[in-house]
Design brief:
The protein contains seven helices and no strands. The longest helix has about 30 residues. The protein starts with a helix and ends with a helix. InterPro entries: PSII_Psb27, PSII_Psb27_sf. Keywords: Membrane, Thylakoid. It is found in: Membrane; Thylakoid.
Length: about 170
């Protein structure tokens, strides 16, 4: 339990005094106080200026990942679909599998980061199918490694989702 002395102040709080800056030469007290007042005024004006400059940029509504246009989305979605198809159909013995999987992960991560927050795209069938397929592919390679072959059933489902997404893109969905 708190003591009553902590709750009830016994003396009046003293106003904070300005700490004068250290003068380089010896001056009178009036000069030091006027210098501190000028410094305080200058600082306030500087803060007001900076606040005025930065406020519009901080308060303006901008989205972190802006999709430029519908054509850009369609082009990038087709690129991702082609990259997924070529990567998951590579043979296990191919020496470029690990590099292709790393490239696919980079492309898919950037695509998802760019379009995941676009509210206009979230309801599209193409976005849903591509996102689902990318999730399945990346989950497989994260769990089993970049050289592990994708099981036939999972591969068929991923390729079907890519085909469905491509058809939806052609229809503008």
């Amino acid at each position: 339990m708190a003591s009553p002395t902590l709750l009830m102040p016994t003396s009046k709080p003293k106003p904070l005094a300005l700490v004068p800056s250290k003068p380089t030469t010896t001056t009178t007290a009036n000069t030091t106080n006027s210098t501190a007042a000028i410094w305080q005024t200058g600082r306030r004006e500087f803060v007001a200026l900076i606040t005025g400059i930065l406020s519009p940029t901080l308060l303006s509504p901008t989205s972190p990942a802006q999709a430029a246009s519908d054509e850009e989305y369609i082009k990038e979605a087709e690129d991702v679909i082609n990259k997924v198809r070529t990567t998951i159909t590579m043979e296990k013995s191919d020496p470029n599998v690990a590099a292709a999987v790393a490239d696919l992960r980079e492309v898919s991560n950037s695509w998802v980061a760019k379009y995941r927050r676009e509210k206009a795209l979230l309801g599209r069938a193409s976005f849903r199918d591509i996102y689902s397929a990318l999730n399945a592919v990346s989950g497989h390679y994260i769990s089993f490694g970049p050289t592990a072959p994708i099981p036939a059933k999972r591969k068929a489902r991923i390729l079907e989702e890519m085909e469905t997404a491509e058809k939806a893109l052609l229809r503008g969905r």
